[in-house]
Here is the input.
Amino acid sequence: VLFQYMNRDLNITQSPFLNIIDSTLIQTVESQNITQKHWKKNTVTIRSTKSNTHTGAYKRYICGFKVFVHLNRKGRVYRAHVSPINIPDNEITKNPCFYQLRGVLLGDRGFNSKEIRKRSSGLYRLISPPHIKEKHVLTPQEQRLYKLRWQIETMFQRLKNEYKEFKLKISNRYSKSIQHGEVFLALIKYNMS
Here is the structure.
């Protein structure tokens, strides 16, 4: 609620032309400290790296939650959602806030599906790189627009960089509401920077 009030006071709203969405994982427990309790609470996910000839593929366990962030064309966060770590990116588009979007929405490959394109038809235009098996390719104009996604990746880098002043320092010893509050506080600080 404080995040919404701050955005209203700072006049940060969605853009009628171009908006960007992405998600990031927020780790609350170091992988060596993950217990059976965390697995039962469904707060752990597995990330696999691609295999290379030298080291091979390996699995990384992450315990925490996922944050979906919406940026407007000026690079300011106008909406954020905290969700369980195992929610797929395309699930967030079922949220009613997506029916208010207009213009162009830039998303990564996780937001690309026929279902989302059908749901967004007539509301907003989703530009997302196609999956490998799809025949659809981005037009040169879509490729130029898609390059604007660097803003959200840079924002995540700034939030997770340990040397920045608004580094996310989330600890598992706090309640979920305090952890989520830390995320929104970091986003408010980002918007004010």
Notes: The chain has six helices and six strands. Helices lie at 2-9, 36-40, 114-120, 140-146, 150-160, 176-192. The first helix runs from residue 2 to 9. The first strand starts at residue 18 and ends at 29.
